[in-house]
Amino acid sequence: MIDAIITSLTERYPGIKQRDFRDETRIEVSSDLYQVLSKLKEAGFDLLVDITCVDYLQFRSAGDHEPAGRFSVVYLLSNTIDAQRITVRAYVDDHEPTVDSVVPLWEGANWLEREVWDMFGIHFDGHPDLRRILLPEEFSAHPLRKDYPLQGRGERHNFPIITRSQA
User: Fold this and answer.
1) Is 162 within the bounds of a domain?
2) Which of 9, 23, 154, 157 has a CA 20 to 30 Å removed from the CA of 42?
3) CATH number at residue 82
4) Could you report the per-residue pLDDT of 39-71, keeping only the tens digit for each?
5) How does pLDDT run across 86-136, given as a tens digit for each residue?
6) Angle at Cα 91 formed by Cα 89 and Cα 95, nearest 5°?
7) Are 84 and 60 in contact (CB under 8 A)?
8) What does the alpha-carbon distance between residue 45 and residue 85 come to, in Å, rounded to a whole number?
9) Cβ within 8 Å of residue 155, ≥6 positions away
10) SS3 readout for 46-78
11) CA–CA dist 147, 167 (Å, integer)
């Protein structure tokens, strides 16, 4: 079933590459990400399991692996009827990393996209409330980027210390 879905997707969106590894199907989408995810949802992948991101900065500078962009946004989808899973990967550029929000497809994407934005700085175009979810609003960086210093930039020393009152 999943092969037929991917075949129809590759016919309609020629930029899709399929990779199978350990009985898991993965596709890379170069454009039309929202449309591909919408078609996968229509095809029965009704559960958005997770959205995450990978920063390929070290590979791009070392020349070992040449990804299509600095970041890849990864969507893990599942079909709750027959327990099939698929991984969808979309590469984005590091200048202004932006992809379309999938909150209209899966309401649960709201917090997942906020987390990816907070940690990696990937902007989700059309997100209803894209703001920090893990870090304070005053925090200006994205700490899971590979170019973020291990010791930070001193920003945690500038935040107010909140303590319990001794009542």
Assistant:
1) no
2) 23
3) 3.30.460.80
4) 999 999 999 999 999 998 876 555 555 677 889
5) 999 999 987 789 999 999 999 999 999 999 999 999 999 999 999 999 988
6) 150
7) no
8) 8
9) 138, 139, 140, 141
10) CEEEEEEEEECHHHHHHCCCCCCCCEEEEEEEE
11) 44
Whether 54 contacts 72, CB under 8 Å: yes
Host domain of residue 74: 2-111
Q: Which residues contact 13 (CB under 8 A, 6 or more apart)?
A: 29, 31, 32, 35, 36
Residue 90, domain member (yes or no): yes
Is the Cβ–Cβ distance between 31 and 13 less than 8 Å? yes
Structure tokens, 93: 């550029």
pTM: 0.86
